[in-house]
Amino acid sequence: FWPPGVTREDCLQLDVHVLILSLFSELKIDQKLNEGKTKQIFELVDQPGLVLVQSKDQITAGNAVRKDQMEGKAAIANKTTSCMFQLLQESGIKTAFVKQHSDTAFIAAHCEMIPIEWVCRRVATGSFLKRNPGVKEGYRFSPLKMEMFFKDDANNDPQWSEEQLLEAKLCVAGLTIGQCEVDIMSRSTVAIFEIVEKAWATQNCTLVDMKIEFGVSVKSGEIVLADVIDNDSWRLWPAGDRSQQKDKQVYRELKEVTPEAMQMVKRNFEWVSERVKLLLDPQASSRVVLLMGSISDVAHCEKIRKACASYGIPCVLRVTSAHKGPDETLRIKAEYEGDGVPTVFVAVAGRSNGLGPVMSGNTAYPVISCPPLTPDWGPQDVWSSLRMPSGLGCSTVLSPEACAQFAAQILGLRDHLVWCKLRASMLNTWVSLKLADKKFQACSL
Fold first, then answer.
1. Would the pLDDT of 343 be above 80?
2. Which of 130, 293, 349, 425 has the fewest CB atoms found within 10 Å of its own CB?
3. ∠ CA 413-415-418, rounded to 5°
4. 427 part of a folded domain
5. Same-domain check for residues 214 and 362
6. Are residues 62 and 175 in the same domain?
7. pLDDT (mean) for 378-384
8. Quick one: which of 441, 438, 433 has its CA closest to 175?
9. For the PurE domain, which residue ranges apply (predicted)?
């Protein structure tokens, strides 16, 4: 017996573990919505708006001109994709991914896919060299090089210009793909690449290029990152060395597919899937130490702490006065200098700000003054934070949220997870403005 809407042939292609789960667990699989070269997508009966994305033990190249079975690839690909989407979601990127369901499948929001493959390149190699004779392999793109390809297997996925995409007037899940949508996908592709690039750099791996796809959520109507991101999606060169490449290019370049060659390809895929888990781990602990001159400043400090939490940065709150107890202020400072944890000190002191200047003059760590200004004396009090003696590098930021962002920018130089959240926040701010402008223009018309 088979789940409703699923044929015997479908089940034979499903991983046995996933099949057992689908039959005997609460997850009920309905009809197959789509099937590609390396995955199948099934509707979920009891979870409207969600689908099961099931990977296959199949590897292909050249639009499936070369096609082979690779035992264990489904689990490897699913593990890689789940980790990558988790990294991007925790950073703040909107994706279709919901959760990993099994070794070989994950649950995602049901999307209608936009038939464009977005390619972002940091280093010139592969097909780019064939299409651009005279460019040497290894040429570094700064800014990143963006390309798009229309998904059409019969015509080998031709490259499209932005103008071609706009003139196609694609309508996906009721959303017409116009200039606003193209701009959002283009800007998102760059941000997603930079986040993944930053993460792989922690493992001394160069992200050479990457392809992604977007879909429109059937439920929300939003454009989200969809499909998969696995070892078929990029080129990875450990230590920037092409000869050590670990991605699918090794399979593409095989002169002959032998069992020994396929084992080498599988080892490369396993190498990537093991290291991709490490991208979710912070490379260095960090913190913000909030020094308030009075307990009355705690509300201001809580705003800073809340904003820091959005970047994953822990905060420590201390009460000390540089005017009334300078020795205690310096003792507290030394306490946090002594354990080697990257730290940003934030001085929160009203009236005459002695905390910021005293801290800045006695530590090599960064110090930010964020005074809680009041309407009555605020314009006068702020000068005690702005006018510093020579030799002090204490910055002043008036907004608690902006203060936290500045601290995150400092700590993000060492912690890629903080940096990734900052990068995603920049993208989301840009997208919200773009959508607001589109909505306003529609209302005006």
1. yes
2. 130
3. 95
4. no
5. no
6. yes
7. 84
8. 438
9. 286-433
